[in-house]
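We modelled each protein-ligand pair independently. The example shown here corresponds to the NAP entry; the chain sequence is given first, followed by the ligand as SMILES.
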Amino acid sequence: MLDSKLTKTVRWGILGPGRIAEAFARDLVRVEGCVLRGVASRDAGRARDFAARHGSETAYGSYADLLADGAVDIVYVATPHAFHAEQIRMCLEAGKAVLCEKPVTVSPEALRPLIALAEERKLFFMEGLWSRFFPAWQQARRWIEAGRIGTPRHLTASFGFRGPRDPGNRLLNPALGGGALWDVGIYTLAFATSMLGTQVEETAVMARFGETGVDEDASIMIRFADGAVAQLFCSVSTQTKHGATVEGDGGRIVFPPDFWRPESVELITPESTDERCFLDTPPGFQLEIAHVRDALRDRLLQSPVIPLAESLLWQEMIYPWVKT
Ligand SMILES: NC(=O)c1ccc[n+]([C@@H]2O[C@H](COP(=O)([O-])OP(=O)(O)OC[C@H]3O[C@@H](n4cnc5c(N)ncnc54)[C@H](OP(=O)(O)O)[C@@H]3O)[C@@H](O)[C@H]2O)c1
């Protein structure tokens, strides 16, 4: 539960010390007012090694032990998607706030009761989608709101990479929530709703399903209530360019690769006075972590930057199109 100590230091626990947790922990220690209180793995040795690398105060060989640690304020859930719902529930029931990696769950039915539980327990709960915090996304949004590109009409974004071909890998394994839509398609959706808003009228997906049954390549089309349209592409079989654009009847905004962790963004108008916004620090988790720290200190139960209603919208947009 939140207590007065949170005005000083937010004490984090990490559940699932894998690939992304490494990057998260590296950045966590650089954020003022945050400490890594504990890390939990199913394997005690893995937790100990991770704790030693990142200066964690404790290491636990079970998730339940981390959740029983009264000095943990918030848990960062960093396991494969298929486990998120159950682990978020465990965290909330143990009285912990939760930051869960994207995608927060793999069905809207799984997310709804978790939102209700967090509300009931008065605990902060947020999906971790770091792109939302980069200044270039926020600058682009400000340009759109200020009418700098006129009325937005079209948006494109592409996020594809050639992932491991091992059918057991989480990207291809249906039991682990595999597929491009859940893994990287969600960044393209988050980009679309960041730039064009959440009044989504229709979503359609065409996908190629691979040998394991998951969508390896998918093209997503969205029509927004105001008539703007988006075309998105995602893949776990093929490297794509990772660029993104928003075009209006008065100009356009161009994100060079990688739009999902942009170091710059450009506004191009007929007056041809190009404007650019550059990131002054390398893209990392610091901005997201500082946002969560501030939200906890302000006693917020949801993030105004990634509200749970929008997380639910992304779930509703993707879920009908995945087979597994
Ligand atoms: N924000 C980003 O840029 C970003 C980038 C990559 C991934 N992600 C997200 O982060 C999450 C984790 O991805 P990752 O690539 O870091 O995962 P990972 O390294 O494959 O696994 C992370 C941890 O999850 C547990 N785990 C792995 N496979 C498991 C299995 N078969 N059964 C039960 N537990 C298992 C393990 O915890 P134990 O140590 O307890 O065994 C492992 O240490 C995903 O939801 C992904 O979408 C985000």
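The pocket of NAP is lined by residues 16-20, 41-43, 46, 78-81, 83, 101-102, 130, 170, 176, 183 (CB under 6 Å).
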